[in-house]
Write a structure and sequence with these properties.
194 residues, mainly alpha
């Protein structure tokens, strides 16, 4: 008898109550960067908008925490170079954009399946991403398609696609070349107490 609600019924028969709930909470670094006006390339600190300050003050009031503890000022940098976050943002924005497209546009602006399922990534997918980016850039450059290109969804897909291609095209950091490590000292030698 640990139920939160008790119900009584005088009718005969069976009563069945069913509840199916599901929730997913994911961080969206690109949305955070836009909201906090963080510089996309620098990954530097952003500023806390007035609306966020008001919300934090209200929460502090309810929590009984002095609002001074929630100081205004720069926020932590938003990571802009995480390929997985960019891929996830690209997949989500692409799915939203494609929901209202006719089949010919869905086919023309289609992304490789590995964008939606990263386990399917293949060697040739980078060239396919390049081809997709070229198609998006071509559409964005044409004044005939301003109805499409003015949509935030299109702009988000284009921005994420550019970032993902750029990250995959960036050369890996150079290996550090060092001389061989110093010879190991003998136990009980001058470097180790014996």
């Amino acid at each position: 008898m640990a139920a939160e609600i008790y119900s009584y019924s005088r009718s005969r028969g069976a009563f069945l109550g069913v509840s199916i709930d599901g929730t997913v909470v994911q961080a969206d670094p690109q949305a955070d960067a836009r909201y906090y006006q963080s510089a996309t390339n620098s990954g530097g600190p952003g500023t806390i908008p007035a609306a966020a300050q008001a919300l934090m003050s209200q929460i502090a009031r309810y929590a009984g925490t002095p609002s001074a503890e929630m100081a205004s000022g720069p926020t932590a940098p938003v990571p802009q170079d995480d390929p997985e976050n960019i891929r996830r943002a690209l997949a989500e924005s692409s799915e939203k954009l494609m929901a209202n497209m006719d089949p010919s546009w869905r086919e023309y602006l289609a992304l490789p399946q590995s964008v939606y399922e990263p386990a399917l990534w293949k060697v040739g997918d980078l060239e396919m991403l390049d081809a997709c980016l070229s198609r998006y850039e071509e559409v964005a450059a044409s004044p005939a398609y301003t109805t499409l290109t003015a949509q935030q969804g299109f702009q988000t897909v284009l921005r994420s696609l550019r970032q993902l291609v750029l990250l995959h095209r960036s050369p890996p950091p150079p290996k550090t070349t060092l001389p061989p490590p110093p010879a190991r000292a003998q136990l009980g030698g001058p470097n180790f107490p014996g």
